[in-house]
């Protein structure tokens, strides 16, 4: 049998969490040989959001090593000092009680402290029993290998046609990326508007739909793909009976956290691994961070799971700080946070807080406006609990973040909007 390797700290998963945790471990003075990152991907941690954006651009294309998390070290050809990066290694069995992980190649890894950072995987149409959904030229996007396949297809099918199934984050970002590559694209989704991004109210969605339509993207709402036929082209069969012909199909129908390795070994809640405000699980010395964690979201006094990059980064830093603090008999503040964002075409939005209660739209949300600077507040119990802003400057984004964080009283909303849009900081 292969030699057993032993580390003080092991991170399972080599994505956003692993990259930001490694950086924080280095900052905290981890010693050479103490930390290992085990990843099934073949490359060091990188900024995953680039895959649906600049990685697909025809110009100004992002490529590794340009968007590794620890890019400065990657460019010099090595990872952070003394941290073992164990790549192309999938963990297939985890036994927390004996502190052992086993890889697909039957290697054994021992740990004293474990960070679970396996992230999410895609939900596939075949999971819903859609016929032919695993055919060639039907693409999903999660890891860099998926992105490479998509780039190849875009090159091979220049000026071709694409159908994008599902219009969540992936759908909206990829329809835009396909369009800028001169691929004619049609988005298909079940909802009456692109509302699955739960923060998209009907009026916010109307802006994006209008904007996308003006860019030449076709939109088919209220139906789903029920089957695929392939000859030269792919025939996308819709539930309403229509058949769309495509060279490329991109599917973005959601993600699910990867928890199976740890089933029955750690407590779960709301579909994720339950943690405290320091990302400690129900088992001592085992942490769960990023997409997999269901943690107390301080601002709302509620347990939540969040699939966004900024949370992955910050929760990684929080967990590592907490690990070092507890070793020194110190403590760190409870986790407290929450913005997220998306970018497509020349659009870029940020959202802070919670999307509950009534909504109020402000600014110019006409799809043909030249500034497309507009936003929305969510009002609950007389307070602003959430705020969305399209095309904000960094100062404006900071201002709306503050409105949501302090839960500004929902009086005089017109004035508040104007203040945000004129860089008011004295809120
Ligand atoms: P992440 O998925 O980054 O990493 C998990 C790692 O674990 C992967 O390397 C995986 O291979 C590995 N792994 C899993 N199981 C394993 C096993 N058994 N053994 C070994 N390794 C294993 N968010 C946002 O706020 N704004 C944005 O613009 C975007 N854009 C975006 C684009 C695309 C294409 C995707 C797929 C996602 C986004 N996101 C986003 C979401 C964001 O990227 C996501 O929330 C974080 O990557 C989560 O970080 P984690 O480290 O938890 O998982
Ligand atoms: P999503 O949950 O955002 O959207 C899923 C979409 O698929 C929705 O429109 C939904 O209604 C639709 N859908 C569901 N079932 C369907 C079916 N049978 N047929 C057709 N449509 C169907 O998920 P996603 O866009 O796939 O994103 C995956 C993950 O990546 C998520 O964790 C997301 O947070 C993350 N991500 C985030 C960003 C960002 O924050 N900017 C960008 C890209 C990806």
From TrEMBL:
EC class (word): oxidoreductase
Domain FAD/NAD(P)-binding: 7-316
Keyword Transit peptide assigned: no
Pfam families: MDHAR3-like_C, Pyr_redox_2
GO CC term, one of those recorded: cytoplasm
Alphabetical keyword list: FAD, Flavoprotein, NAD, NADP, Oxidoreductase, Redox-active center
E.C. number(s) listed in UniProt: 1.6.5.4
Entries under InterPro entries matching the protein: FAD-oxidoreductase/Apoptosis (IPR050446), FAD/NAD-bd_sf (IPR036188), FAD/NAD-binding_dom (IPR023753), FAD/NAD-linked_Rdtase_dimer_sf (IPR016156), MDHAR3-like_C (IPR048618)
GO molecular function: monodehydroascorbate reductase (NADH) activity
Cofactor(s) needed for function: FAD
Residue ranges constituting the Monodehydroascorbate reductase 3-like C-terminal domain according to the UniProt record: 340-424
Sequence similarity: Belongs to the FAD-dependent oxidoreductase family.
Role summary: Catalyzes the conversion of monodehydroascorbate to ascorbate, oxidizing NADH in the process.
Protein name per Swiss-Prot or TrEMBL: monodehydroascorbate reductase (NADH)
Species of origin: Olea europaea subsp. europaea
